[in-house]
Here is the input.
Amino acid sequence: MRKTLIYKKRVQDETGREYILWYSLVIRVAEHGRIYGVEIEKTNEYGRQERALIAGISEEKKETQYFLERLWCGVAMPAELNALYDDYIGEKEWQDDRGIYAAC
Here is the structure.
């Protein structure tokens, strides 16, 4: 498995402590091609604090990048990743075939 950093964002929590959120595209090579996923890491001056990964979102890179962009725009935290992915899948079921739009 390989990952590529796509977005990085500095944030502060309610106490003023600073963190950096790292949003990466994860690529896994399978027998029939590539499978794309996402990873969110939350770090501070002491190192990694939290990490979440969904390794198998789609065989379509563009679709996975769109989801990753939505995570970045919404300042998604690692602990929220699974719930946000569930919401995204539910949304896709109702989406028509007009294409992928800008996330932000």
